[in-house]
Specification:
A hairpin with a 3-residue loop joins strand 8 and strand 9. The protein has 2 domains: about 90 residues, predicted glycosyltransferase like domains (Thrombin, subunit H); about 90 residues, Thrombin, subunit H (Beta Barrel). The strands form 3 sheets. A 6-stranded antiparallel barrel has the order 1-2-3-6-5-4. It has a 6-stranded antiparallel barrel with strand order 7-8-9-14-11-10. It contains 2 helices and 14 strands.
Length: about 220
């Protein structure tokens, strides 16, 4: 039996060989890193890209494709993905297969349990968050966002009630600058593959990623 044929049969969606410009973002030990590359093939729920670095299996990245740096509308929302396969390329670099983490259709909460004033949408956007007494923000990505708040992954340690300043360089949020906010919920995330992210690179203090929900203290028009 042909192993290549067997592997193709296991895919839920066929892939088309398309070479499209792409941008990959991932969390490194000292913060977010980006790489500009191109796709080798694309399907409805995944893609294969050429990369200079292999990446850890199971690690999360954020991808934009097709990527147009000169787009007049600015940077588009990014799609979370997981590294599911890494192979050495024919020349230099690696061929890395990514499985897209597309938003799931979750049934709405019962009316007696729904406390959100504004619905949240699954948007992966860069977000810079810092404590009021700390000059340097942590760069992360939103998991969802609304007019009244957002949820993001963090390598820092937060507690409910902490006051922070958040900046999202996209749309009307970019024009708002730093938005005063407070932490309303902190939940543990699954431990990612690879080395633990550093919550304080200068001191070498590591932390487990958490999912942090913030509520804006001032209304926005985004």
């Amino acid at each position: 039996m042909n192993l290549a044929t067997t592997f193709l049969e296991l895919r839920k969606h066929p892939r088309a060989q398309l070479k499209l410009p792409a941008r990959i973002r991932w969390r490194g030990p000292l913060g977010m890193r980006m790489e500009y590359t191109h796709t080798l093939d694309v399907s409805r729920n995944g893609l294969c890209v050429q990369r200079n670095e292999p990446g850890e299996l199971g690690s999360r990245v954020w991808v934009v494709f097709p990527f147009d740096a000169a787009s007049a509308s600015g940077p588009p929302p990014e799609t979370p993905a997981r590294v599911v396969r890494v192979e050495s390329g024919a020349g230099a670099g690696y061929q890395v297969a990514l499985q897209l983490e597309l938003p799931s259709r979750i049934a709405s909460r019962p009316a007696d349990r729904e406390r959100r004033v504004c619905s949240r949408i699954s948007f992966a956007l860069p977000i810079f968050v810092r404590a009021l007494d700390f000059p340097w923000p942590e760069e992360s990505m939103t998991q969802n966002i609304s007019r009244t708040g957002a949820r993001f992954e963090s390598a820092h340690i937060y507690s409910a009630g902490d006051a922070v300043l958040a900046k999202i360089p996209w749309g009307d949020w970019a024009r708002a600058g730093e938005i005063p906010a407070r932490i309303v919920r902190v939940e543990n995330c699954a431990t990612p593959a690879g080395p633990a992210p550093l919550s304080n690179p200068l001191a070498g203090i590591s932390a487990i990623l958490t999912s942090v929900a913030v509520h804006w203290n001032t209304p926005t028009k985004a």
